[in-house]
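#struct-help
A.M.: can someone run this one for me? Single chain, 242 residues.
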Amino acid sequence: MAFAGVDALFRPVGRTGTRRGTPTVALPGTYRVQHDSLLLAEHVRQHAAGCSVLDVCTGTGFLALTARQAGATDVVAVDLAHRSVLSARLNSALSRSALTVHRGDLFAPVTDRRFDLVVCNPPYVPSPSDVLPRHRAARCWDGGTSGRLVLDRVCAGAGRVLAEEGRLLLVHSTVTGVEATLEQLDRHGLHGEVVARRTVPFGPVMTQRGAWLHERGLLDPQEQEETLVVVEGRRRRREEDR
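D.P.: on it. Structure tokens below:
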């Protein structure tokens, strides 16, 4: 199959990518590397060395490749979208970094595995409907009316694939509710902590939905920036449960 403008599929991510000059393939409909990806990648680099890593909602495979090139021993990437799976496999081949890429719903393809590090950049932008898109680009960011339809499932399921001393790292906007994430992790046996915050300008989706988010009380009328957070989840120690 021939693509018009094939150069548009390759985005060199430079210093903040998997490595300087590595091209990142993002087939149409696949989430491209953005501020949230880069913020989470900083923390993946800190913790991936010597670890088995799972990247769910992998998109282009950027975070999985970041982990691999930071010294992870084994990296598995999962996404539900066919195009994301293909993008991640292409990027694995292009960068000569071995990834195992599965198509599936969050943790379903790896229920028999345990990982030292689980990372996730889920769809988290509040959207007008709780029926999530299946075949449009919006599937990469729509999180339902609360923004939490996928995020809450990640919080609920991560503990089942974490090794005993494993670590979950996920990123989302404060518009989606930080306390709600910490409460969800606690409900499912993980201690949650915000380990990074960064304020960034609105991207196209947040700009387009600004008025609607204001009507719902999630944004101030003149707000043009959002705060991203990286949340870490670890298993509670037994003494913490007493």
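A.M.: thanks! The radius of gyration is 17 Å.
D.P.: also worth noting: The first strand starts at residue 10 and ends at 12.
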